[in-house]
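Notebook entry, structure prediction.
Reason for the run: the old model in the group folder had no record of what sequence produced it. Starting over properly, with the input documented here first.
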Amino acid sequence: MSAYISYSPKPDGSKSNDKAAGGATGAPVDGAGYDIVLMHDGLADGLNVFAGYSDISQAEGADSDGDRTSYGIGATYAVGSVTLGYQFTRDNEGHHNSNTAYYENTAYAISFNINDDLSISYGEMESTKHTTNATAANKTTMEIDSIQLAYSMGGMSIKIAESSVDDATYAADGSTGSDFDATTVALSLAF
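New structure, fully documented this time:
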């Protein structure tokens, strides 16, 4: 089992440039933030499970209902040439002025190594935005699916991905103006 712990005294997004002072500028952050991730790969051959939690302290008031918290769980399982993966995450915004209460995200994927040089994989992700409105239409969903092919030979590798995004902006009206398709080709050479 492995554990990863991180801590930030002021996780407000303020970053210092060279010879510049940093500081807390990102309201409503008022305190520290921490992350904890646990991973375990000894439950069964090929199985890796993981879980994580994150907390950022926010002052309660006009912009915030409390701390921003996130958590996630997931697993991968490899058997032979096939690897399966699943993950669930939830991000609780803690802001009532933003009209977003939280996001729930579910992802799964499968990959298959055809041989030592060629592999194919497929993945889907669904992200649901829940708003603070007390109406029946208080959530919208973005969906992403992608299929990838990777081939390597010596110091060269080529990767191709065909991806599709439905409702990238979480449009409540269900319009198709934020639907996208993309093909990505990447070539890498090692000398």
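Summary: The beta strands are 2-8, 29-40, 47-58, 68-79, 82-92, 100-113, 118-131, 139-153, 156-166, 180-189.
The old model has been moved to the deprecated folder.
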